[in-house]
UniProtKB/TrEMBL annotation:
<dbReference type="Pfam" id="PF01139">
    <property type="entry name" value="RtcB"/>
</dbReference>
<dbReference type="GO" id="GO:0005525">
    <property type="term" value="F:GTP binding"/>
</dbReference>
<comment type="subunit">
    <text>Monomer.</text>
</comment>
<dbReference type="GO" id="GO:0006396">
    <property type="term" value="P:RNA processing"/>
</dbReference>
<feature type="binding site">
    <location>
        <position position="170"/>
    </location>
    <ligand>
        <name>Mn(2+) 1</name>
    </ligand>
</feature>
<dbReference type="GO" id="GO:0170057">
    <property type="term" value="F:RNA ligase (GTP) activity"/>
</dbReference>
<keyword id="KW-0436">Ligase</keyword>
<keyword id="KW-0692">RNA repair</keyword>
<feature type="binding site">
    <location>
        <begin position="312"/>
        <end position="315"/>
    </location>
    <ligand>
        <name>GMP</name>
    </ligand>
</feature>
<feature type="binding site">
    <location>
        <begin position="169"/>
        <end position="173"/>
    </location>
    <ligand>
        <name>GMP</name>
    </ligand>
</feature>
<dbReference type="GO" id="GO:0003909">
    <property type="term" value="F:DNA ligase activity"/>
</dbReference>
<keyword id="KW-0464">Manganese</keyword>
<feature type="binding site">
    <location>
        <position position="187"/>
    </location>
    <ligand>
        <name>Mn(2+) 2</name>
    </ligand>
</feature>
<feature type="binding site">
    <location>
        <position position="406"/>
    </location>
    <ligand>
        <name>GMP</name>
    </ligand>
</feature>
<dbReference type="GO" id="GO:0042245">
    <property type="term" value="P:RNA repair"/>
</dbReference>
<feature type="binding site">
    <location>
        <position position="81"/>
    </location>
    <ligand>
        <name>Mn(2+) 1</name>
    </ligand>
</feature>
<dbReference type="GO" id="GO:0030145">
    <property type="term" value="F:manganese ion binding"/>
</dbReference>
Length: 407
């Protein structure tokens, strides 16, 4: 393992809690830096905050940050796409097994897995295979228990959206690695149900904040928190754990449907042992530096020594299967992707359709104006992001996509 630290100590105005940033050679916007300072200033945050190279401004907490807390939890730091993450599996197929007309493969996968937000991204009727998976998982029963305590949490989206992709930066890709092996990779989370849970508890935290007598300054209402020992703390931990399990299950359900569709259209193939399913928006209790901490990874992946993870690029750029080096300075974490360099609004105003089509010319994907905000130019250089965290992970496989499906 490379023992030379690659992080920089970022200025932490108003706080004695250090901010360690793996940001060499990548942009760090001023607003994101201020947001990190606000987080570090909270008395229950520490021993330090770790910042990944894909860092950018987020709601509540900075995307690309690892926030350890003692005896408190911040729902908005986890966000509303609870358990969002990646899954990837390597097949025995090779590039020569793929059809010349990749548009047909793309359209068949789009039919198999509903994409987008709103009714178009829902199942009108849950397929039997996914309904059976959901029934056997116990997730519906656990959600019913959560709803019994918190009647305002809606659960009607659960059956409509299990096994669906969603919109925004969620995607399904068919990729080739350095040996031309075919991979399937996808990115999604806990869909509308997780969003409803996250939104509900963020609002409850704000309500609690209005009743608290604080002995410190809270610079942002989105940093409202629950304290360990409070009933809402336990209820949130239960709900967020459910959403994280559901997100993992949802990725497994989608992967099963994509692979089923590929089996109908491609030569016979097997799945190889190398498969990864990892969260990058979540919180869990972990032991670090001799103490028990609640670690929130907001756009960050666990990278313990030997642990496999996925760092996707953007439409048109490379992605990576990585192995963690277990760096304690980052709380055993790495980046979750390239990270945005433009807001969605800025991307729509700055990137032309011609530029988008040129940047994705080698990929079978959408080329229309509705995905301009996901074009490669809206993201940081994945090469720079990977170089900045060479002490956090090693590259196991380099993937280039040939088919990309966006919601």
């Amino acid at each position: 393992m490379d023992t030379q630290p690659h992080y920089e100590l970022l200025h932490a105005e108003g706080s004695t809690t250090p901010i360690k940033g793996w940001v060499h050679g990548v942009p760090l916007e001023e607003q994101a830096h201020r947001q990190l300072q606000n987080i570090a200033a909270l008395p229950f945050v520490g021993p330090w905050v770790a910042v990944m190279p894909d860092v950018h401004l987020g709601k509540g907490a900075t995307v690309g940050s690892v926030v350890p807390t003692r005896g408190a939890i911040i729902p908005a730091a986890v966000g509303v796409d609870i358990g969002c993450g990646m899954a990837a599996v390597r097949t025995t197929l090779r590039a020569a097994d793929l059809p010349d007309n990749l548009a047909l493969l793309r359209s068949s996968i789009e039919r198999a897995v509903p994409v987008g937000n709103g009714p178009g991204g829902d199942h009108r009727k849950l397929p039997d295979s996914i309904a059976t998976r959901l029934a056997h998982s116990g997730l519906a029963d656990r959600l019913a228990t959560i709803k019994d305590k918190h009647r305002k949490i809606r659960t009607d989206k659960l059956h409509n959206q299990t096994g669906t992709l969603g919109g925004g930066n969620h995607f399904i890709e068919v990729c080739l690695d350095e040996s031309d092996a075919v991979w399937v990779m996808l990115h999604s989370g806990s869909r509308g149900t997780g969003n409803l849970i996250g939104t509900y508890f963020i609002e409850r935290a704000r309500e609690e904040l209005a009743r608290r007598v604080l002995g410190f300054h809270l610079p942002d209402r989105d940093l409202a928190f629950f304290l360990e020992g409070e009933p809402l703390f336990d209820d949130y931990v239960e709900a967020v754990s459910w959403a994280q399990d559901y997100a993992r299950n949802n990725r497994e359900a989608m992967m099963a449907r994509v692979l089923h569709e590929m089996r109908q259209r491609l030569p016979k193939f097997q799945l190889e042992k190398l498969a990864v399913n990892c969260h990058h928006n979540y919180v869990q209790r972990e032991q670090h530096h001799g103490e028990s901490l609640l670690v929130t990874r907001k756009g960050a992946v666990s990278a313990r020594e030997g642990e496999l993870g996925i760092i996707p690029g953007s439409m048109g750029t490379r992605s990576y299967i990585v192995r963690g080096k277990g760096n304690p300075d980052s709380f055993h974490s790495c980046s979750h992707g390239a990270g945005r360099v433009m807001s969605r609004t800025q991307a729509r105003l700055s990137i032309t359709l011609k530029q988008h089509r040129e940047a994705t010319a080698h990929v079978e994907c959408r080329k229309d104006a509705a995905v301009i905000d996901e074009s490669p130019a809206a993201y940081k250089s994945i090469d720079a992001v990977m170089a900045a965290q060479s002490d956090l992970v090693e590259v196991v496989h380099t993937l280039r996509q040939v088919v990309c499906i966006k919601g």
